[in-house]
Design brief:
By secondary structure, this protein is of the alpha+beta class. The chain has helices at 2-11, 52-62, 87-100, 121-124; strands at 24-30, 35-39, 69-76, 105-110, 116-120. It has one domain (2-134): 3-Layer(aba) Sandwich (Cytidine Deaminase, domain 2), CATH 3.40.140. It has a 5-stranded mixed beta sheet with strand order 2-1-3-4-5, with helices on both faces. The two termini are 27 Å apart. The protein binds tetrahydrodeoxyuridine (THU). Tetrahydrodeoxyuridine (THU) is lined by residues 17, 20, 22, 24, 40, 42, 49, 51-53, 74, 83, 85-86, 89.
């Protein structure tokens, strides 16, 4: 999914990451082909920083399009290694997958280069806590 990874890389330009210097971009592909992007948004308090994946999925939610999510890409960092989503982002991805009602591939890449690994959300977060654990059965938005 080269185009989606390219979009994630493009979003790195909008990262607000003056504290870590670790710019990350994320991109979400919707069922109609639209791509929505986001970047990490750090905070002087450090702990309140938002990751690119959470930012982009919150944006997709704000657009009313969570049910249409088809794939997620994340790229960035300062090394040649791919970016691995943090724990909170994995949980947020799981929620998006539950709402979308389809398995979401997650493409993880570095800021540049060919290294890219595709993961399933389930591989990133096995036995996830989700809506069913709260007795919520109708997750998909109409
Ligand atoms: N970060 C992301 O945006 N996504 C990831 O998958 C890993 C980490 C951000 C958070 C923080 O702004 C910076 O990268 C360093 O941790």
């Amino acid at each position: 999914m080269a185009a989606l990874v390219d979009a994630a890389r493009g979003a790195m330009a909008h990262a607000h990451a003056p504290y870590s210097g670790f710019a990350v971009g994320a991109a979400v592909l919707l069922t109609d082909g639209q791509i929505v992007t986001g970047a990490n948004f750090e905070n002087a308090s450090y702990g309140l920083s938002l990751c690119a994946e959470t930012v982009v999925l919150a944006t997709v939610n704000s657009l009313g399009r969570l049910a249409d999510v088809e794939a997620i890409a994340v790229a960035g960092g300062t090394q040649s290694a791919i970016v691995a989503p943090c724990g909170r982002c994995r949980q947020v991805m799981h929620e998006a997958q539950e709402i979308a009602g389809r398995h979401l591939p997650v493409y993880c890449a570095a800021a540049s280069g060919d290294a890219m690994t595709e993961y399933s959300v389930a591989a990133l977060l096995p036995r996830a806590f989700g809506p069913a654990d709260l007795g919520v059965t109708r997750k998909k938005k109409s």
